[in-house]
Write a structure and sequence with these properties.
alpha+beta, Alpha-Beta Plaits, globular, two-stranded antiparallel sheet
Length: 86
């Protein structure tokens, strides 16, 4: 953890199943609404608003957030072999 208790950049943009591209996030919060395990959260500092991963370990890989994201900010994570994990 770093100052103010925020997690490192890497841990706030990925789970074992999903990768978040914060630059594509439109801050619609749909991923937060559909997640049953509270993996995603909000980051908002002035005009810089986007989703963040707040509990990567809770992600089950169900894909609900992937299906709901209108901007394509959430993508299937790749394994070391390059195969999709969801």
């Amino acid at each position: 953890m770093s100052f103010f208790g925020f997690l490192s950049h890497t841990s706030r943009v990925a789970t074992p199943y999903v990768t978040l591209d914060r630059s594509r996030c439109e801050a619609c919060w749909r991923c937060i609404e559909v997640c049953r395990t509270a993996v995603m959260g909000k980051a908002g500092f002035g005009p810089h608003r986007h989703a963040v991963v707040v509990d990567a370990a809770a992600c089950t890989g169900c894909g609900r957030c992937l299906n709901e994201c209108p901007s394509g900010a959430l993508r299937t994570a790749k394994t070391a072999t390059g195969a999709a994990t969801v």
